[in-house]
Amino acid sequence: MLTIYTHWKTSILFFIVSIFIFPDVSQAVIVFRDSHTGQSQIYIMNDDGRNVRELTHTPFTEIMPRLSPDGSQVVFMRDLGSTEEQPHVQQFDIFILDVDGINERRLTHHPKSDGAPAWSPDGKHIAFSSRRSGNGEIHIIELASGKIRQLTKNNPDEGYSSLPSWSPDGLHIVHEQIIDGGGRHIYITDIDGKNTRPFLQGVQPHLIGETVISRSHPRWSPDGTHVMYFEDHMRYEANRVVRLANHIIVVDKHGRNPKKLDIPKSWWLYSACWAANGDQVLFAGEKDGFQNKGKRNYEIYRYHIFSGNITQITDTPYKEYDPHWVPGAFSVSPEGKLNVQWGDMKKMYR
Predict the structure, then answer these.
(1) Is 348 exposed, middle or buried (CB count within 10 Å of its CB: 0-12, 13-18, 19+)?
(2) Which one of 18, 35, 71, 144 is most buried, by most CB atoms within 10 A?
(3) pLDDT digits (tens, 9 = 90+) for 271-327
(4) What number does CATH give the domain 26-349?
(5) Whose CA is closest to 217, among 190, 245, 194, 250?
(6) Domains of the chain: which residue ranges?
(7) Angle value at C-alpha 12, between 7 and 14, nearest 5 degrees
(8) CB of 93 within 8 A of CB of 116?
(9) Rounded distance, CA 235 to CA 30, Å?
(10) Are 281 and 228 in contact (CB under 8 A)?
(11) What is the CB neighbour count within 10 angstroms for residue 236?
C-alpha cells in the first residue's frame, strides 16, 4: 500500500513540475520560410512567434513547408537548380525531414519537377504537382512504399492541375486548374481520380473588360467546412502584367457563399494557411506592397475570422512567407536546440 501511495505522489509531482519545466509541449507551431541568408530556408516557431529555430541550412532554396497532421515531420519542395540536360530549367523535388531538423529524406527523383506537397489527413500519403506524365497533374505518393499514382488526367490542349489541398475526410482534393486561354480556377477531384469538376458555384468570370481575374492556392479548413483561396485582379499593359488587387476569399464546402477577408487593399498578399482550427488565418503580406513594388518585406500576420482583427507575428528585415500551422503535441525547443526570439533574430540579421 505504501508503494502505491508513493508512486501516486511521485506521478503528481512529476506532472506539476513538467508544467513549469516543459511549458511548450502542447504549444501549436508554425513552419515557414525565411530569406535572410539570400536563399530561403525553413524555420519553425511557436504559435505566438517565440522560440524560432532553423530546420534547414542548405545551399538550396527551400519552398512550401508543410507540417504533417501529427506535427512530427515537415515536407517541402527544394529548388535544385538547373541540370546539364536542361540548363535553362529549374529542377524541383520533394523532401521530408523530422520536425527536429534531422533525418532528411528525398521523396521524388524524377527529371521533371515535383512540388507543392500536401499531406493526407492520416499522414500516410502526400499529394503533389508534377509534369512527370508530360502534362501538369496532381500525383499521390504513398510514404510507406514510395509508390506514386497519377490523380488528375487533363487533356494537354485544355490545361493542367496544380497546388493540391486534401479534404479532412480524405475523400477529395481541391486544387488549382489552369485552363489554356481561360485563366486560373479552383477545381475538385475525388480521391479515386474521377469526377474532376469546378469547385466554385455560380458564374466565375475570368475576364471582365480588361481586368483578368485569377483564382489560385486553395486550402481546405481543418474542420472541412470551408475552403480558402486567393483571388487576383490584373491587367496587361505594354506587354507586362499590372496587379490591381488581391484578396483572400473563403467559401463554404460546397463552393458557395464567398466572403472576402477584410484586409486593406494596399496590402500585397503572398501565401496563407488556416490556423486555430479554422478560427484564424495566417498569411504573409506586405502592408504597402502595391507602393513598394521593388522592396517588399513580407511578414506573417494572423487574421481573426470573427473579429477581423489583424496581428503581426514576425518582424524582421527579411521576408517570411509560406506559413503552415498545426496544433502542437511536442516541444519546438528540444534539448540541445537554441531558442531564438524575433528581437534576437533582427539583431543577428543586421
Answers:
(1) exposed
(2) 71
(3) 999 999 899 999 999 987 676 665 678 999 999 999 999 999 999 888 999 999 998
(4) 2.120.10.30
(5) 250
(6) 26-349
(7) 95
(8) no
(9) 34
(10) yes
(11) 11
- Beta strand 159-166 with 172-179: parallel, antiparallel or unpaired? antiparallel
pLDDT tens-place string over residues 81-140: 866 666 666 789 999 999 999 999 999 999 889 999 999 999 999 999 999 988 999 999
Provide CB contacts within 8 A for 16, sequence distance 6+.
Answer: none
The span from the CA of 346 to the CA of 349, in Å, is 5
DSSP class of 317: S
What whole-number distance in Å separates Cα of residue 311 and Cα of residue 301?
Answer: 6
| C-alpha–C-alpha distance, residues 295 and 304, integer Å | 27
Q: How far apart (Å, rounded) are the C-alpha atoms in residues 126 and 144? A: 11
Q: Is the dihedral of CA 213, 219, 220, 221 positive or negative?
A: negative
Distance CA(189)–CA(283), nearest Å, equals 26
Question: Which residue is listed with cell 511536442?
Answer: 330
Cα angle 198, 201, 203 (rounded to 5 degrees) comes to 95
Determine phi and psi for 205, rounding to 5 degrees: -65, 145
What is the rounded distance in angstroms from the CA atom of residue 344 to the CA atom of residue 297? 18
For residue 7, the tally of other CB atoms under 10 A from its CB is: 10
Q: What pTM, to 2 d.p., does this model score? A: 0.84
